[in-house]
Amino acid sequence: MFAVNEPLPTTQVIWSEQMMEYRFSETHPMHPIRLELTARLCKDLALFERANLTLAAPPVATDAELAAVHEPRYIAAVREVSANPDIPDEARGLGTEDNPAYAGMHEASARLAGGSLLAADAILGERALHVVNFGGGMHHASASKASGFCIYNDAALAIRRLLDGGVKKVLYIDVDAHHGDGTESIFWDDPRVMTISIHETGMSLFPGTGFANEIGGPNALGTAVNIAVPPRTGDAAWLRAFHAVVPQLAEAFEPEVIVSQHGCDGHRDDDLSNLRLTVDAQRQNALDIAELARRLCGGRWIATGGGGYNTASVVPRTWSHLVAVASGKPVPLATPVPRSWRDYVLERYGIRTPESMGDNAELWWRSWEVGYDPADPVDRTVMATRKEIFPLFGLDPWFD
């Protein structure tokens, strides 16, 4: 991804053990063990020792900062439920089965948000070219409601900070198995932001939205892009769908910064989706987004985490690959997972984890240029999106 003589990108990783305070309960799928084990694996792979990589602890976002995308009454409601967890506010999604209330919820959520704001400031201040906040990616939170394990939408806050800092256009790419509905809704009618979400169709998966005909508000038609792939979509079809839509629209939109959400719950061993992806495909996708940022945005890229509920065997490997890609030296898929890390997970949590950083998958996919197969449900998904969006950018849905 970087030429031999090209300097490695200045990279910042947002991390602090305080981020693990985002903890709904010991049995909730969004358990902070996934953050702990990701950071530990990065350390054991010596990623945090790279000379071009620095760690930064996230601050707690202020109410004024959160109000850039969230309604003040909603922020006040989060504070109230955080102080009184036994009194839920279900109308705002607080204290529900998905988003159980707990003491300190506001501060824990605002810290994750502060991490992505710090990432935006690093880009604006040219202190980093790439920033990774694997504790972020809370893409279901809308302006006035918590949803899908997400309280404050850190990615949306980072995008708003970039725009307020003078960036003219931001491309948001969401590869979580679930539709990035919250981020999309916040920028629904803002022509400066294109949100692209590739996800399992809402016909079979929460939140039940994100279809091809959801294309943005009247002032921003075509800037909401949805690729709703069917259940059981695997690596080859998923990568084909991504490459049949995202690079073409990215080039047409001409963003100055890319913000991406790398939920890895589409993995075949994750119980919260019906996709059939591997770590290998998710790593390749990070490489693809990094290349888009290099080619279109001078490298400026903020990458967040997101969903991912196989907390030991999948999430740490996927997000360690993301950190390695962002810092300019990808970890080969055949790399052994450090024995020290596997032993720790077994002794501490009783979980046996994979021995390799990859899943030994076959990643070849059929290019869209080879042709459209109307009998293929993924091809029909791709064509539905291309027909809705491509003409709005002067592109031909059949050939571009």
UniProtKB/TrEMBL annotation:
Keywords: Acetoin catabolism. The keyword Cell wall biogenesis/degradation does not apply. Residues 28-324 form the Histone deacetylase domain. Pathway: Ketone degradation; acetoin degradation. CDD domains: HDAC_AcuC_like. Belongs to the histone deacetylase family. This is Acetoin utilization protein AcuC. It comes from Paeniglutamicibacter sulfureus. The lineage of its organism: Bacteria, Bacillati, Actinomycetota, Actinomycetes, Micrococcales.
